[in-house]
Specification:
260 residues; Potassium channel tetramerization domain containing 6; SKP1/BTB/POZ_sf; T1-type_BTB; six-stranded antiparallel beta sheet; BTB/POZ_dom; 7 helices
Length: 260
């Protein structure tokens, strides 16, 4: 039989509006903490129980809904907390399960740490500061490298592009197949299709086509769930009359391991 958690109520002390008043065995009156409570967190509404909100009595929420901390209400009568509304879902789920579960593509760790610090939920703070990976052990990172190499003439004024090579390198074969299938407009420029690489080469009159293809490729890669991890620029001088400039973009996404 589930245990009923009761809050002692003394004359003149605060008690949750949504709690049910019930007489305890010793004759005192208490408030049951199983009735639903609606919170407005930064404009986002959440409904939970007082038992969940007071799971950690030393936290800000524990103090707030234990009567030791002042509360505010919105015009509809919901408890109001002026914090990050979307991130509160992870805080609330942690209160419910004592486990931190995040999406594979979650990136707002610093913001979530600030929320955990604000609510003073010590186990959540420790979990976020734990050096062990937050993601399941059956995940790994897929990487895509996109490079644009331009050879420039030193004697042109302004400097002219002699040749440009655009290369995509990745072990994600489905991505390479997609590029080969969906970017047929640039097939005449496709010079190399190795196992883990696709390259396009453009002559001096095709510079704007290379830029157009690069923009479309970056959009295509990000739509497959990849995000840019970093960018690099490298300047090289191969010949007396040429400069070579190489731009690199690294894209990453998390994926789950599959049994062979």
């Amino acid at each position: 039989m589930p245990c009923k958690v009761l809050v002692r109520h003394f004359p003149g002390t605060w008690a949750p509006r949504d709690a049910a008043l019930e007489q305890m065995d010793n004759g005192d009156w208490g408030y049951m903490m199983t009735d639903p409570v609606t919170l407005n967190v930064g404009g986002h509404l959440y409904t939970t129980s007082l038992t969940t909100l007071t799971r950690y009595p030393d936290s800000m929420l524990g103090a707030m809904f234990g009567g030791d901390f002042p509360t505010a209400r919105d015009p509809q009568g919901n408890y109001f907390i002026d914090r990050d509304g979307p991130l509160f879902r992870y805080v609330l789920n942690f209160l419910r399960t004592s486990e931190l579960t995040l999406p594979l593509d979650f990136k707002e760790f610093d913001l979530l740490r600030k929320e955990a610090d604000f609510y003073q939920i010590e186990p959540l703070i420790q979990c976020l500061n734990d050096p062990k990976p937050l993601y399941p052990m059956d995940t790994f990172e897929e990487v895509v490298e996109l490079s644009s190499t331009r050879k420039l003439s030193k004697y042109s004024n302004p400097v002219a592009v002699i040749i440009t090579q655009l290369t995509i390198t990745t072990k994600v074969h489905s991505l390479l197949e997609g590029i080969s299938n969906y970017f047929t407009k640039w097939n005449k420029h496709m010079m190399d299709t190795r196992d883990c690489q696709v390259s396009f080469t453009f002559g001096p009159c095709d510079y704007h086509q290379e830029v157009s293809l690069r923009v479309h490729l970056m959009e295509y890669i990000t739509k497959q769930g990849f995000t840019i991890r970093n960018t690099r620029v490298h300047h090289m001088s191969e010949r007396a009359n040429e400069n070579t400039v190489e731009h690199n973009w690294t894209f990453c996404r998390l994926a789950r391991k599959t049994d062979d």
